[in-house]
Amino acid sequence: MAAATVAALGTLALLAGCKAVGPDYSRPGYHAPAAYKETGATTVIVPPPNPAGGSWHPANPSDGLLKGNWWEIYKDPQLNRFEERIATDNQSLRQASETYLAARDQIKIARAALFPTISAGAAATRNEVSKNGPLYSATRSNPYGDFQLEGEASWEPDLWGRVRRTVEQARDNAQASAADLAGVDLTLHAEMASDYFQLRGLDSDIKLLESTVKDLEGQLDLTDRRFKGGIGTEVDVAQARTQLEQVRAQLVDLGVARAQYEHAIGMLANYAPAEFSIPPTPLDISLPKVPVGVPSQLLERRPDVAASERRTAAANAQIGIAVSAFYPNITLTGTGGFESERITTLIQGPSALWSLGGQAMELLFDAGQRHALTDQARHTYEANASAYRSTVVSAFQDIEDQLSGLRILEQESTVEQRAVDSAQRSYDLSNQRYTGGVTSYLEVLTAEATLIQTQRTSIDLTTRQFVASVGLVRSLGGGWDSSQLPK
């Protein structure tokens, strides 16, 4: 009987290693374009085109790709310090990290069902049988003791792969959660860089207006002296003072936006608001070149794409879980231990007891529930596969938007710089004409207002270029790729 039991257990173990029911996962197909369309900006590094009929692939790892601390390409030590605090101090990132750790624990929970459950226990009772009862025996001591020491094992062999598919699903969900964590990390770092460059752009604007205020104060003094000397008019003085106060008001107004960006940066880096401030730092650094790689790499470099793909795999595993419900559940149990009336004879051969058993249970009627659950799982998989393809399309659109933004802003910045140069020349000439008494102060005011506007527009374009550069890095996935997903 022992040999038969061992043989039966061995057969079930072999069956438990059979292929799991349900479809094996295959990533939904998507054909990536051969090259990006909007690559005209000089701040974008594009790999050379693949020769006709060629089949070369970029080296992996490649020095032409972004690295983990991608913000270091801007070579700004202050930005680096703020970015580094996100990993250790940002609460949103910590929340996403704990969510991932909880998903990883779910794998261990699911995998535990592959193994038997074993329990052990001990019991001791003192009993007295009624002398008038049917169990009473004059030859048996009464009252009597009963001491037990038992262990029990129960195992449900994974014959149809339900547990394996559950483990597979838990692993896929954990990897999706890991990709979500990477996505939160990328978003926070990109938001930090974007806010920081916009704050520095405002500092450039403030620097310009402060310089303009000094110039206008000089203009007001000049018009006042000309008026007192009888060669100017009181209208000129009033116009100069109006222009000065307008620029002062604009300067004060910039403080509102700057304070908001400073608060946002402090929040991302988890600084106490009352103790945090950023000294004025005009945006006077060069825009770095961003390597975009080839489009096919984007499917591996975007955390949101990876998360969507992993959830599609988890939905596929759910189909196998649903299909396994059509097969019988088989449970093996075994019990062994010792029992005796006296504790002194408990651990002895005659006190031994054991029991082996098995049970098979098949559901015969459920009013179509299993069919509905299987259909539901298949539809959920198709929905996730469509969501994955949609995420990929959105990712490519995001890339093209950022590339076109950089290209157009670069062109606009070049044209605007010519406008600034022309406005500066116009202002200088008007100022000379006014000083020489050839024209009225209104011409100077008009030229100066145009110069201020073109200079501020130029600063705004520079700021937008930096923000678009950060947006491109974010849309490329930063320095992340799917090889970093936990196995």
Detail the topology: elements first, then pairings:
Blueprint: H1 2-16, E1 44-45, H2 77-89, H3 91-111, E2 117-127, E3 144-155, H4 162-228, H5 234-268, E4 290-291, H6 298-301, H7 303-324, E5 329-340, E6 352-361, H8 369-435, H9 441-475
Parallel strand pairs: 1-4
Antiparallel strand pairs: 2-3, 3-5, 5-6
Written account of the structure:
Helix 4 packs antiparallel against helix 9, helix 7 packs antiparallel against helix 8 and helix 8 (about 370-435) runs antiparallel to helix 9 (about 440-475). The chain has a single domain, classed as Up-down Bundle (Outer membrane efflux proteins (OEP)). Strands 2-3-5-6 form a four-stranded antiparallel β-sheet, with no helix packed on it. Strands 1-4 form a two-stranded parallel sheet. About 55% of the residues lie in helices and about 10% in strands. The model has no long low-confidence stretch (mean pLDDT about 90). It contains nine helices and six strands; from the N terminus they run αβααββααβααββαα. With about 475 residues, the protein is of the alpha+beta class. It has helices at about 1-15, 75-90, 90-110, 160-230, 235-270, 300, 305-325, 370-435, 440-475; strands spanning about 45, 115-125, 145-155, 290, 330-340, 350-360.
What strand order characterises the main sheet? 2-3-5-6
Strand residue content: 5-15%
**What is the CATH architecture assignment?**
Up-down Bundle
CATH structural class: Mainly Alpha
Major β-sheet profile = 4 strands, antiparallel
Q: What is the tally of helical segments?
A: 9
Report Rg: 38 Å
- What best-fitting shape do the alpha-carbon axes yield? elongated
Give me the CATH superfamily: Outer membrane efflux proteins (OEP)
